[in-house]
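Postdoc handover notes: sequence design on the structure in folder B. Input C-alpha cells:
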C-alpha cells in the first residue's frame, strides 16, 4: 500500500512541477528574466526525477507482487518465479494497448 501512495504522490508532484515549469518558463521568456528561466529549467528536471521515481516504484511493486495495485493485478501473476517476466509486464501492457488500438487487417 505504501508503494501505491509513493507512486501516486510522485506522479502528482510530477504533474504539478510540469505545469509550474511550463508556466514559469513561458513567463520568464516573455520578460527575459534569466533567474526565472533557470528555475523553470530546474523544475523541468525535477519533473523528470518524479517520473523516474514513479517508474521505479511501479517496477518494485511488480517485483514484489504487490496486488494492491490494479496495474500489478492486471499484468502480473504469482506463477512467474523470476524477475524477468515481472519486468516485462511493464512493456507488455503497452504492446497490448497498441494491438487493441490498431485497426483490423482486411481479409485476403
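Designed sequence:
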Amino acid at each position: 500500500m505504501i508503494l501505491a501512495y509513493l507512486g501516486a504522490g510522485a506522479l502528482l508532484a510530477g504533474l504539478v512541477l510540469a505545469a509550474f515549469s511550463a508556466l514559469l518558463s513561458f513567463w520568464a521568456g516573455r520578460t527575459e528574466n534569466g533567474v526565472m528561466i533557470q528555475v523553470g529549467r530546474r523544475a523541468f528536471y525535477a519533473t523528470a526525477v518524479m517520473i523516474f521515481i514513479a517508474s521505479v516504484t511501479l517496477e518494485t511493486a511488480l517485483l514484489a507482487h504487490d496486488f494492491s495495485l490494479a496495474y500489478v493485478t492486471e499484468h502480473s501473476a504469482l506463477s512467474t518465479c523470476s524477475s524477468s517476466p515481472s519486468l516485462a509486464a511493464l512493456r507488455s501492457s503497452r504492446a497490448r494497448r497498441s494491438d487493441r488500438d490498431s485497426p483490423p487487417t482486411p481479409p485476403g
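Context for whoever picks this up: The radius of gyration is 19 Å. Don't rerun without checking with the PI first.
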